[in-house]
TrEMBL record:
Belongs to the bacterial solute-binding protein 2 family. Pfam families: Peripla_BP_4. Transmembrane segments: none annotated. Keywords: Signal. Residues 52-313 form the Periplasmic binding protein domain. It comes from Paragemmobacter straminiformis. The keyword Magnesium does not apply. InterPro entries: Peripla_BP_I (IPR028082), SBP_2_dom (IPR025997), TAT_signal (IPR006311). This is Sugar ABC transporter substrate-binding protein. PROSITE patterns: TAT. One of its GO terms (cellular component) is cell envelope.
Length: 369
């Protein structure tokens, strides 16, 4: 018998013995990473991909997920190779789905995630770290939770600096109102960072407009139907006192318009946020004064790209500076004067992105007040 064959048989015998010992002890391959050697290495170089998000009903989230799919295709896979973990606005479901995905794939996962509300980001990161996976998050986390506190497993967090853009839309609204009158604000989910920042932006602008009164500000949970119901209640309560509407996102603006149309009200000044194709067209048509684009296609793609490349070892998150672990995404104010050019550049032909340029379009490190 040749030495090569003898050595091979001995190695296989040892591997088989280790497997039996592990089985007898109730250990899994995740608990004994050295058992299968090359098999485990293959898993590490080909992590399962997932995007955890609310739903795909809105144009915004559809763009986010489309970005994730574009990245997935860029590494030679199909769209179907990216699993959608749809939480339907439930933080509990978000966490449960992520845990199940981690368990199914023995932790060999690269996950992009919006935690749905801020407190959920920490347990998501803890679950991913415990399983040995990798996650990059967007939008929602508490100020005291940071990726660098979780080693390499919480790769990055991206949010958008919404306060200033929301202040800019408010100023556009107030000027259209002639600097006086009453405004109502319809917001997102109360615990969401963007909902808080967009309301703060409105309040900042109000400081320079003493003749404008904030009549009311209530959450509409980013939802068109809830926004229509809330706006109808505002109209019942405040009537003609309302002379302008500040919306936390485009979906909310659509609901506001439905409520106004039902009451036969035309020409009400309205501003929104997200830069969805329908909203941009409404800006062009004069139905909205302004919206703000956050480039969700790029955001969705690069968030998954960061988790994936950390998982396969392209870069080591813990060796990156903090501004690469927590950073702002890009924002573009869209008004009537530039809406057509914006639509042609970003919506009619979606740009092709280099998914390894992780921080190119980003807008600096997150700043805490």
């Amino acid at each position: 018998m040749s030495t090569f064959i003898k050595d091979y048989i001995e190695r296989e015998t040892i591997s088989r013995r280790n497997f039996l010992f592990a089985s007898a002890a109730g250990l899994t391959t995740a608990a004994m990473p050295g058992v299968f050697g090359a098999g485990m290495a293959r898993a590490a170089t080909d992590p399962a991909l997932a995007w955890s998000y609310r739903d795909r009903a809105s144009a915004y989230w559809n763009a986010i997920v489309s970005g994730g799919e574009a990245f997935t295709e860029s590494i030679g896979k199909t769209k179907e190779d990216m699993t959608s973990l749809i939480n339907e606005g439930s933080s509990e479901k978000s966490l449960a789905d992520i845990k199940a995905f981690l368990a199914k794939n023995n932790g060999a996962c690269a996950i992009a995630c919006d935690a749905n509300d801020s407190p959920n980001a920490r347990p998501v990161a803890e679950a991913v770290q415990a399983a040995g996976g990798y996650v990059s998050t967007i939008w929602n986390k508490t100020d005291d939770a940071h990726p660098w506190d979780f080693g390499d497993n919480w790769v990055s967090h991206m949010t958008w600096s919404d306060e200033k853009p929301a202040e800019e839309t408010a100023r556009i609204l107030f000027e259209a109102m002639g600097g006086k009158g009453g405004v109502v604000h319809l917001g997102g989910i109360a615990a969401n960072n963007p909902a808080i920042e967009r309301l703060n932006g409105l309040k900042n602008a109000l400081k320079d407009y003493p003749d404008i009164e904030l009549l009311d500000a209530q959450p509409a949970d980013w939802d068109t139907t809830k926004a229509a119901e809330l706006m109808a209640s505002f109209l019942t309560k405040y009537g003609d006192k309302i002379t302008g509407v500040h919306c936390a996102n485009d979906n909310i603006a659509y609901g506001v318009m439905e409520a106004l149309k039902a009451e036969g009200i035309e020409g009400m000044p309205i501003v929104a946020y997200d830069g969805n194709p329908e909203a941009v067209q409404m800006v062009m048509d004069g139905q909205l004064l302004a919206t703000v684009f956050t480039n969700p296609h790029w955001g969705g793609g690069v968030t998954l790209a960061l988790a994936y490349h950390a998982a396969i070892g392209t870069f080591k998150p813990s060796e990156e500076p903090n501004e690469h672990r927590e950073f702002y995404g890009p924002t573009i104010l869209v008004t009537a004067k530039d809406a057509a050019d914006f639509k042609a550049k970003y919506l009619d032909n979606v740009p092709t992105y280099d998914w390894k340029d992780f921080w190119g379009p980003s807008n600096g490190q997150i700043v805490y007040k």
